[in-house]
Design brief:
Layout (H helix, E strand, L loop, with lengths): L1 H19 L4 H11 L3 H7 L4 H12 L8 E5 L5 H8 L4 E6 L2 H10 L4 E4 L14 E6 L13 H6 L1 E12 L5 H16 L3 E14 L10 E2 L4 E11 L19
Parallel strand pairs: 1-2, 1-4, 2-3, 4-5
Antiparallel strand pairs: 5-8, 6-8, 7-8
Helix pairs in contact: 1-3, 4-5
């Protein structure tokens, strides 16, 4: 049994490590097409915590009841975020992804009211301005996936006063992207487009795929790389001066 688990971990590390090394979007989408049947098992093996933590962060800050909130899951993959949302009472879920095979897996979960094929960064999101109470993008902000230039599109489809939740890795191989991302996030805040509520560093993001991922940004004692969750509120210009206090990350996570 232990030998089989070690084999599964080695295979998962090899696949995810290969993904992290792809910086071309078309190549990365092709990789996801082939990976879709094994995706859930691999990320479970690597103890990937981002979907659960991001939804926890969003759920405590959303100003409307879960059952009434219309949520967009961007780069939804196989629907891991939707499973976490549904477990917390969120029922009105839309998803978009650039991989048809990933969308097939998401459709099989039966949790989304609507799924669309969309490669954010190459095309706009297939929704009108101000549609969603909250928008999440979990696990897709890195080189070769969603470019930082696409972040305003997340804001466009969010209602004024609605929330945008974003995640990215903070291990060495993703630090350049993270710096570029934070430049865009800060620029939008300075322009009054949104207000940061949370920037939550997480040590135990997922298991490192190789020793090359260890170092600054890595919890060396247990082999986990780190990540970060951002939560923003889209500004309603009529109420910009009256936003409420910032929520804090869940204390027990």
């Amino acid at each position: 049994m232990a030998q089989a688990e070690a084999g599964n971990l080695a295979e998962a590390r090899a696949r995810v490590g290969a993904l992290h090394g792809i910086t071309d979007l078309d190549h990365k989408l092709h990789f996801y097409e082939r990976w879709a049947p094994d995706y859930d098992q691999d990320v479970a093996t690597l103890q990937y915590h981002a979907p659960c933590l991001a939804v926890d962060c969003l759920a405590q800050a959303l100003p409307v009841p879960p059952h009434a909130a219309l949520i967009l899951d961007v780069a939804c993959g196989t629907g891991l975020v939707a499973a976490e949302l549904q477990a917390r009472g969120f029922l009105q879920l839309h998803g978009v992804d650039g991989s048809p095979k990933m969308l097939e897996q998401a459709q099989a979960r039966g949790l989304y009211q609507h799924l669309s094929l969309c490669t954010l960064g190459q095309e706009p999101l297939p929704s009108s301005e101000g549609t969603f109470d909250a928008v999440l993008i979990v696990g897709a902000l890195s080189d070769g996936q969603v470019p930082c230039s696409a972040i305003p599109e997340l804001l466009r489809v969010t209602k004024p006063g609605g929330l945008v939740c974003l995640t990215t890795r903070t291990n060495p191989s993703n630090l350049r992207y993270k710096e570029a991302l934070e430049t865009v996030l800060d620029r939008l805040e300075q322009a009054g487009a949104w207000k940061r509520l949370v920037a939550w560093p997480v040590d135990r993001w997922e298991l490192a795929t190789s020793e090359l991922e260890m170092g600054p940004g890595t919890s060396d004692r247990d082999g986990f790389i780190s990540g970060i969750i951002y939560l923003y509120r889209k500004q309603d210009m009529a109420q910009e001066e009256g936003v409420g206090p910032s929520p804090q990350p869940p204390a027990d996570l």
